[in-house]
Specification:
Helix content is 48%, strand content 14%. A hairpin with a 2-residue loop joins strand 9 and strand 10. Helix 1 runs antiparallel to helix 4 and helix 14 runs antiparallel to helix 15.
Length: 695
């Protein structure tokens, strides 16, 4: 049976650059899965996917021209319906056999076996395998339909729809064109290379010749990963030649890789006078608008040079460089103009312009929000014994840059420009730094705000959002989180834990609630919902950090609201769990919890005069003995030492349960023993619910 490499390529207009890698991988994976499902792959050696600005392609080795024949067994119908009392075929069975093209005398060869609770007839037949010629177009069409394309377009007079117009379809099995029609195109072996550097249309000899032919004759590097690596190699080498560095460039590298087919890196420059503009503005202008790679000196300061990734490789690139320099200059001039104009007005003077800006139609304007942030940030700074006036001032000005020209043009610079304008207004570095960093952390791994003032403003910003949207019933659902509340919750938790800041989460939520006008927050029970949401985020955060699930569950069962104490409590529970006494104490604690669940009403303190058995007296005295030491450790936040002291109770606890009947018939004795267990549980479960450690 003939096997050969298979090539599938769609030649298109320029594909969306940010989606290109995903389109390429998905297209190839779906085709490979389709081939595999039809048993057309003789030996699974994987596949290679290709994605360039104007093409999606896949090559698969060891693809069969036809799949081998196979036995197929299908259920016909239950025996009680298929056969009469004498075992002869019923009319219902004969009708079904006729519909399927099965001879009536084949019934004698049907297999009878149980199908669930009823016996059924099964028919086994040999079936020819699929042929590549018959199914490949269908597989490709299914792959096209499965692509993550939010918006389709039509072109020409046909009915085909795709993310961009498609001009050629190549289906090659070895050196043979596989017939097929996809997107109104018939298959061929002809492709095209680079728009300007290729020799024109290229006839591919074989599927295996695809990549080398495109490289040699088409001047295209079709492999996305290899093209990315080549661009990165050139960028790093050219930056080194310039005595410069590239800073962060991974996201831009992916985008540029999706824009060029034959990459070549050139050096451009702009007038040094533009460096008077904050470098973040210039960097964003070059990266976002022009797709240039800015260069930096050893101290991280922007240089007046940049790298251009061109789609052309020519001996004299002076025109390319000059053209790019000519294009970037007006962009930099715009940035300078915005900066100079913005500095003519103080942040304070811009506050009235926040009045008409709607934050949310149920939560008021940005100015109303600023008033809440000002109050809340000052209160939080006070709890931290920080500069309350600086925190309130930073919160008051934190959103003023939203109505500047620069942030209007580049929303990504909010906060960053606020810092520059605050310094220009002589607000002081503490206030300016807090304005910039109050959005942090913006994503996993992002830096935290530094200092009590910055932390107070950042917490106020995130808590106000969480309380506001939960208070009007706008909770995240599934993967939808339009207001970034999960990110805000994680930001609050990271600031409190990693700070660490000695603040109570429940008190912070209550303080944030107090800043809203009466009657504005109408959702029932939203504060409890918000705390549940925060604890769920905390659970995920700790799990991602590598903590064991039972340790997390034990600690979180007590709903600790001092997040700064969480790491120490986790360490204590983890250390306790490793002790030889841990398993028995956890099991005993679980037993105690189950017993106490059945108790109705309050229990008094245990009465020593009512103790009867030696085992209960011993446990009582051990509890009285260790209680002060445990309380001392807890007060000093020495949670590991507290749990290690409690581990010493194991012998007394084991003996108690071996020798004492807790649920004694005499009411006072029973109540006193339950009171002793309640006292023991209260002592043991101050750090975590140790019963959660029991299997």
């Amino acid at each position: 049976m003939m096997t050969a490499s298979l090539l599938v390529e769609l030649l298109t207009e320029e594909l969306p650059p940010k989606a290109l890698p995903r389109l390429g991988e998905t297209f190839a994976a779906k085709i490979f899965d389709g081939l595999k499902a039809r048993d057309l792959i003789a030996e699974d050696r994987g596949f290679r996917w290709f994605a360039a600005p104007r093409r999606l392609a896949i090559t698969v080795p060891q693809v069969r021209a036809a799949a081998p024949a196979r036995e197929v067994t299908e259920k016909i119908m239950p025996v009680q319906v298929a056969l009469d009392a004498e075992g002869r075929p019923t009319p219902a069975l004969l009708k079904k056999l006729e519909a399927k093209g099965i001879a009536a005398d084949a019934v004698a060869n049907f297999e009878r076996r149980m199908d669930g609770k009823a016996e059924a007839l099964f028919y086994t037949r040999n079936e020819d395998g699929a042929t590549l010629d018959a199914v490949l177009a269908e597989i490709v069409q299914d792959a096209v339909k499965a692509l993550p394309i939010p918006k389709l377009m039509r072109w020409g007079a046909g009915d085909a729809q795709f993310v961009r117009p498609v001009h050629k379809l190549t289906l090659l099995h070895g050196d043979r064109v596989v017939p097929g029609r996809v997107l109104d195109l018939d298959s061929d072996r002809v492709t095209r290379g680079h728009r300007f550097m290729s020799r024109g249309e290229i006839a591919l000899a074989t599927a295996d010749a695809y990549e080398p032919t495109l490289l040699a004759e088409g001047k295209v590097i079709p492999d996305f990963t290899e093209r990315r690596a080549e661009i990165e190699r050139q960028l790093v080498a050219t930056a080194a030649e310039q005595g410069a560095s590239l800073d962060e460039y991974a996201d831009l590298l992916d985008e540029v890789t999706a824009l060029v087919e034959h990459p070549t890196v050139y050096v451009g420059e702009f007038e040094a006078e533009f460096l008077a503009v904050p470098q973040e503005c210039l960097i964003l202008t070059m990266r976002a608008n022009q797709k240039y790679f800015p260069l930096f000196d050893a101290a991280g300061k922007l240089l007046n040079r940049f790298l251009i990734v061109s789609n052309m490789r020519i001996a004299d690139a002076s025109n390319i460089v000059a053209g790019n320099q000519r294009v970037v200059r007006p962009r930099l001039s715009d940035a300078r103009f915005f900066f100079e104009q913005d500095r003519k007005h103080t942040l304070e003077s811009r506050l009235p312009r926040l009045g008409p800006v709607v934050y949310h139609n149920k939560l008021g304007s940005q100015l109303e929000r600023v008033e809440r942030l000002e109050r809340l940030a000052g209160a939080i700074a006070g709890k931290l014994r920080g500069d309350t006036k600086a925190a309130a001032r930073a919160a008051r000005l934190a959103k003023a840059d939203l109505v500047t020209d620069m942030v209007g043009e580049f929303p990504e610079l909010q906060g960053i420009m606020g810092r520059y304008y605050a310094l220009n207004d002589k607000e002081g570095e503490v206030v300016a730094d807090a304005i910039q960093s109050h959005y942090q952390p913006r994503f996993a791994g992002d830096a935290l705000p530094a200092g009590n003032v910055a932390c107070a403003v950042a917490l106020a910003d995130k808590l106000d959002a969480l309380v506001g949207f939960f208070g009007i019933g706008q909770l995240p659902t599934g993967d939808k989180d339009p207001f970034g509340l999960r990110r805000a919750a994680l930001g609050v938790l990271r600031i409190l834990i990693d700070g660490p800041l000695p603040l109570d989460l429940a008190e912070l939520v209550a303080d944030a609630v107090g800043g809203f006008k009466p009657g504005l927050l109408t959702a029932q029970g939203f504060e409890a919902q918000l705390l549940d949401f925060m604890f769920e985020r905390l659970k995920n955060l700790l799990r991602d950090a590598g903590h064991a699930g039972d340790v997390i569950d034990a600690m979180l069962a007590l709903r600790p609201t001092r997040m700064d104490l969480v790491p120490a409590k986790l360490d204590a529970v983890r250390t306790f769990r490793a002790l030889p006494e841990a398993e028995a104490l956890a099991a005993a604690n679980k037993r105690i919890v189950n017993i106490l669940k059945k108790v109705e009403g309050e229990l008094p303190e245990p009465d020593v005069a009512l103790l009867q058995e030696e085992a209960e007296k011993a446990l009582f005295h051990r509890v009285v003995e260790v209680a002060p030491l445990v309380r001392s450790h807890m007060a000093n936040e020495d949670y590991t030492d507290a749990l290690c002291v409690l581990a010493g109770l194991r012998a007394a606890v084991d003996t108690f349960f071996d020798e004492v009947m807790v649920m004694a018939e005499e009411p006072l004795t029973r109540q006193n023993r339950l009171a002793l267990l309640r006292q023991l549980a209260g002592l043991m479960n101050q750090v975590a619910d140790l019963s959660r450690l029991s299997a």
